[in-house]
Amino acid sequence: MLIAAAFTLLVFAYSLVSRQLERTLITAPILFTAAGALMLLFPDASSELFLDRKGLLLIAEVGLVMTLFTDASHIGRRSLQDNHKLPVRLLSVGMLLTIFLGAAAAMLCFAGLSWWEAGILAAILAPTDAGLGQVIVNSPRVPARIRQALNVEAGLNDGLAVPFLMLFIALAAAIDDGVGARGVLARFLLEQIGYGSVIGLAIGLGGGLLMGLAQRRQWMSAELGQLAVVAMPLLCILAAEESGASMFIAAFVAGLAAQVGFPKVGRHSVEFTEGWGQLFNFFVFFLFGLLCAGNWHAFTPAILLYAVLSLTVVRMLPVALAVAGIGLSRATVLFIGWFGPRGLASIVLGLVYLEQQTKLPGEETIRLAVMATVLLSVVAHGLSAKPGIARYARSCEALPADAPENAAVDGPAAK
Predict the structure, then answer these.
(1) How far apart are alpha carbons 326 and 333 in whole angstroms?
(2) CB within 8 A of 186, min separation 6: which ones?
(3) Which of 88, 135, 259, 290: CA 20 to 30 A from 17?
(4) Which of 344, 415, 350 is nearest to 381 (CA)?
């Protein structure tokens, strides 16, 4: 009750001064994370958080399912094609290299991790969070092509990271138990990806076609249409629980499939989640601050080193390799590489991993490394956003009119 009361009062206070705070370097994630950390001053808050862990994990799962469905439903082929395939490079070569380098860095920093445990950590920290860099995505001083690339990347890479995470968890748990990896891989492909994809296709196609029919016949009001959209990812959760499939893969596939019968599904899902999704984000960062405050003493030099590497080399080198050959300036490559913040998706994926209760030897290391990396990202990317925009804008002014950064783009961004 103490956590809920404190959070509600903070949301009310923040809403009163939100416009004033937009003029400062203090972002909403910084504010809510700091406020959550201050809750450690109240002993009852920590005990309340521990007792309600199952509830928090449920909130995290539902939140990620809704996010994956919304992201997938709002991304069409035009968003990828109209941007000269820059997001495709970031989501393919960039994503794979980020996971590989993240795992390699983990093996260098933490002697006790297995390669599969290192892969779990890398997959959790691979997704970027447009919410932490919202000021960048909305800034007209940043070229539209660059803003859209960062936004589309953040909209899709959390969904792409989920299969890697679940696969690494299954393999790590199997090897720790002495089970062969080949059988686990086959079972993972069948149950997690196979069943999940089938469930997503059935719910997305069926739901989208029915919503399209209802709209053409004028059976459905515009306001309540949002509830029908929300029902689809919730159905994915229920169906996945019964079949042993991945609810996250099912929700992501459903969001893509629903566009076939109801192209406006993205607009409806965004309308619903913009308000409630923002509240969910604030709540997660608030609880994240409380968790970090209770574990700050466990952030060893190795943990902090990995956090720095994750936000710099592990992110920036794959970006540089992914965009090589398309003519972007050095300033643009550095800008895209730095502003790949880790936030909500990594927090939720970390909670999802803990819920699996695999009891791996490196679980504590993975948990602390995720916390330290996200905490550093919240502060570093939040404080550097406006100064970074100003410096990058000055670099863009010197670019010729036909520079790749200035290429025209069409269609909405991801988030």
Answers:
(1) 11
(2) none
(3) 290
(4) 344
Contact 349, 367 (CB under 8 A): no
Place of tokens 């629980």: 241
State yes or no: pLDDT of 311 exceeds 90.
yes
Tokens in use for 269?
A: 């899902």
Q: pTM (2 decimals)?
A: 0.83
Domains annotated for the chain, with CATH where assigned, are 52-406 (1.20.1530.10)
* Residues 312-331 pLDDT 10s: 999 999 999 999 988 899 99
With contact defined as beta carbons under 8 Å apart, do 75 and 91 qualify? no
Question: How many angstroms separate the CA atoms of 257 and 56, rounded?
Answer: 29
pLDDT digits (tens, 9 = 90+) for 336-376: 999 989 988 898 888 878 877 678 889 999 999 999 999 99
For residue 348, the one-letter residue type is V
Closest CA to 187 of 195, 198, 175: 195
21 touches 14 (CB < 8 A): yes
**pLDDT on residue 51:** 47
